[in-house]
Amino acid sequence: MLDALLLALWAGIAGIDLFNGLTHIHRPLVSGLVVGLILGDVQTGLITGGMLELVWMGMAPLAGAQPPNVVVGGIIGASFAILANQEPSVAVGIAVPFAVAAQAGITLLFTAFSPVMHKADEYAEKANLKGIDKINYLGLAILFVSYFIVVFLPIYFGADTAESVVNMLPQTFIDGLSTAGGMMPAIGFALLLKIMFKTQYVAFLIIGFVLVAYLELPILAVALIGAAIAMYDFYNGKNKGNTPPPSEEVYTDGI
């Protein structure tokens, strides 16, 4: 009960951060650590959170476009891995459907809340700042409660039975989830490259692949090499005066 309440509380905080705080404490990597601390298995929480971070690294909500919900997926996935004593790759296969379901739920919630914006416009025309504040606080409260309930229910009612249900599943199904979960980080990176891919950076992509696949360097070593290259490129361009001048922002209708 206490664990479910703490996890639900964290889900509410992370859910608000996803849309309003933007400190990125809602990311699966952070949630994995928090879930691990609450449930007493930091290592499994961190590994599961890290795998889910690779899956959803390039996904962030932009305006009305909602990707799979990283808050619900991250917390449910890490919790499942610890409570059901399963491999993190299996938990990834469980987390993705929860994240997709939460994606639909958030879209429905935002749609249901949209008429309130007309009231906010009315308050704005009357310069009623307190009314606008109340609407914003109401939105935050609804968001917090929604995340709290969505995470509390499966953790509370499923914590004791999760392991027994998993034990009832055929081993081939578990192996399938593990295989699918292992593929998810590659799919996440493919989606990220689809957005960020630039021809001039292909050389660095190939170098990274060689370092990992053929020289078998750990991820931390490759990340440090990438950081060193990025720092060299940044300061080299800065010293040459290649940094473009900041463009003047244009405001229209207060935006």
TrEMBL record:
It is a multi-pass membrane protein. Keywords: Cell membrane, Membrane, Phosphotransferase system, Sugar transport, Transmembrane, Transmembrane helix, Transport. GO terms for biological process: phosphoenolpyruvate-dependent sugar phosphotransferase system. One of its GO terms (cellular component) is plasma membrane. The chain crosses the membrane at residues 31-56, 90-114, 135-157, 177-197, 204-232. Its main location: membrane. It comes from the Bacteria. The keyword Aminoacyl-tRNA synthetase does not apply. It is found in: Cell membrane. InterPro entries: GatZ_KbaZ_carbometab, PTS_IIC_GalNAc_AgaW-like, PTS_IIC_man. This is PTS sugar transporter subunit IIC.
